[in-house]
Design brief:
alpha+beta, 375 residues, seven-stranded mixed β-sheet, three-stranded antiparallel β-sheet, 12 helices
Length: 375
């Protein structure tokens, strides 16, 4: 596997499972109901975080494969050399990250409830930690019985959960607020990865986390691809079991060479963005197509739609559309797209470049029909 451009699937899936479990545990502990959109946002961001974490781990491990002379180490020696590293990734770091994810999901649910109830209980008070190892930097807040309005700017930069394993909390109250004590506090900076409010952006770990800021080259692209693939697989599972709900997902942008080719054909796309809808995925894997042996393997469909850049691209002169083509295990799959197609996204009709359908073809037919290879 190319550890720079791809992400190891099994490690990613298990990492994501754990952080989704942590989020569910934290939300349940809060006792506050979370809406489906917020849950989906947390899961999407968990997928991105898990992908970056996996990419960092696999590249750290791969960096120890060679000895000082550039020779490949024996397996036993490599295992010994990375034992300390794996004990951190799969032990102490994972435990701290899991526990913190639980806490921050809990605090996020609390905060959204505070905002909903602000007309009745307009203020929140910083409560003491439940940890036996008290953080002296946060102690100043609960000792001062800090009580501020929910919308006070202090909460933008300081809140329970902005330090690793912080077990402080907030309590909503109608008791008077007092911000005069703030000027007496000594500065406390949120730790990297914890300087956001998960209640507003759905991120249990922020973009300042070292997995992001100290990522290896290729991490962002690989993480986007893996997270998108996970989302598309979820849609495939959903439409197999029930009816489409109108989901529309951006899966990429037209390559510059493809865009130039289209414009030379006298067609001007309204944008370079490419979308896929659950309706079209349902159409691509419909049963009557499967019975004829023309349905693309769902895993191949998810792989292709999440990483179009690696596929061959053809122009269908007759239909004025694009074919993205790949051959996997001796089978040639086509993925058809239309330019300036009208789709429904978030309840609104928009015009974009959209996935239409997919199917299995005989590659020899590519030269027999009106197709022009672009790249």
């Amino acid at each position: 596997m190319d550890v720079r451009s791809r992400i190891q699937r099994d490690i990613f899936e298990e990492t994501l499972r754990l952080f989704d479990k942590a989020a569910a545990e934290g939300l349940a502990e809060s006792g506050k109901a979370a809406d489906d959109m917020f849950l989906d946002e947390i899961r999407r961001n968990n997928a991105v975080f898990s992908a970056f974490r996996t990419h960092r781990m696999q590249n750290d491990l791969a960096s120890r494969l060679l000895d000082g002379d550039g020779n490949l180490k024996s397996f036993d020696r490599w295992v010994r050399d990375v034992r300390g590293m794996t004990s951190h990734y799969c032990g102490s770091w994972l435990r701290t990250e899991y526990d913190t994810a639980v806490i921050r999901a809990h605090r996020a649910a609390d905060w959204r409830h505070f905002e909903d109830e602000a007309d009745v209980f307009p203020n929140v008070r910083w409560m003491p930690t439940t940890s036996p190892n008290q953080d002296p930097l946060h102690r100043q807040y609960w000792e001062a019985r800090l009580t501020l309005p929910v919308n006070h700017p202090f909460w933008n930069d300081h809140r329970p959960g902005d330090r690793w394993n912080c077990k402080c909390s907030l309590r909503q109250t109608d008791e008077p607020a007092d911000d005069s004590v703030i000027r007496k506090f000594y500065p406390v900076k949120a730790q990297p990865g914890l300087d956001n409010n998960p209640a507003t952006d759905g991120k249990l770990f922020s973009d300042s986390h070292p997995y992001y800021t100290k990522a290896y080259p290729g991490a962002e692209k690989a993480a986007e691809t893996m997270a998108l693939k996970k989302q598309i697989k979820g849609i495939i599972v959903q439409v197999k079991e029930t009816f489409p709900t109108g989901q529309a997902v951006k899966i990429g942008n037209l390559d510059r060479s493809v865009l130039r080719f289209i414009e030379k054909r006298g067609i001007t796309p309204v944008s370079d963005e490419i979308f896929v809808t659950d309706h079209r995925i349902k159409h691509a894997i419909r049963e009557n197509k499967t019975d004829k042996g023309k349905t693309v393997n769902p895993d191949h469909l998810a792989d292709a739609l999440s990483d179009l850049g690696r596929l061959e691209v053809y122009w269908d002169e007759k239909q004025k559309g694009l074919w993205y083509v790949e051959t996997v295990d001796g089978i040639t799959n086509k993925y058809v797209f239309r330019i300036n197609e009208k789709i429904k996204a978030d309840g609104q009709r928009i015009t974009v470049n959209s996935f239409v359908t997919a199917g299995i073809i005989d590659k020899s037919t590519l030269k027999m029909i009106e197709l022009i290879k672009i790249k």
